Amino acid sequence: MRQVCGLDVHKDSVFVCILNENGIVFREKFGVLTPELEQLAAKLQELDVSEVCMESTSVYWMPVWRVLEPYVDDLKLVNPYFIKQLPGKKSDVKDAEWIATCLLKDLIRGSYVPADIIQQLRQYERRISDLNAECVRKLGKLDAAIQRCNIRISNYLSTTDTKSYKDVVRLISEGVRDPKELMKAIYCRIVKRVGEDVILASLTGVISDTDIDMIRQLHEEVELAQRHKDECQSKMDAICRQHFPKQLENLQTIPGVKGRSATAIIAEVGSDVSSFQDATHLVSWSGLKPRNEESAGKIKARSITHGNRYLRKTLVECAWAASRTQGCFFNAFSYHQVVVRRKNKLKVQVAIARKILVAVWHVLHDNATYRDHTPDIAPAA
Asked: 80 and 36 in one domain?
């Protein structure tokens, strides 16, 4: 007789309910330490349970999945949104029973859980994403510390991430206060554009020893974050070259997709897209598909849905690059939508990101290089 198990996973406990067609077979609470989870795996084997389902509760489901995966033939992960319990009947025990009931009646479709090597890539990729956000925050704090000393050089630079700005910060962190010495770090084209007197005045400030200490510490934190980013990226490159060399090469034939974004796409989607029936399913999973929300003949919303935000961010960055790549379909599409049809440029980039993801699915599915589409839309002379 078919027996299934539902797991309600929490930070410090796992509620277990095993069902068959005759009713509840076993119901118990387990801890989350490895020996306790191994006891749970032994119990599942003892009762001949071949199907197990659990909710994707934060990161708490991951260690449970790792321990149970070798012992269970069919292990499913499900979004809690799709198996929400009825109001007034929610408890940990009943949640586990409800999950098992939905699984027994085949009402659950498991979420995409990639292979172990892809999960390792994801850890590096998402660490890079966190470090990027940290670098932006630290650079903001660093510029505030520089402005506090009345060093106004950032007013005349395009961004605080330029080499000239970093060199000025490095010199100040080493104790250099002379504006003439600091100006030697400024790129000559910037000096010519703004004027030598203005640059010299912007580098003349009031810098105390405490300011130097604060600037030095913030500068070291930014450098450390950048070094960690480079480490993570080199690890990703090595894994992709070893396990997915062909896919890495094929993805870079898509306009706007280069080495960094290709490794990020493999980390989020994987090299095998058989989990997605077609490109539409992959687009929907990523959250780039417009929602269908209509009632009484009125359209309530057409914004994109929730999905994999890491993949979505990478694809939008690729879309900006692709829209500037001369001679490709994405460039012609961007021109026609923005210039000819006067559509919002940001929304057009999301549309291009969706088209790039469709191309990604076909490149990975067919294990082939990208072939550019040549529609009848062409830029006006």
From this structure: yes
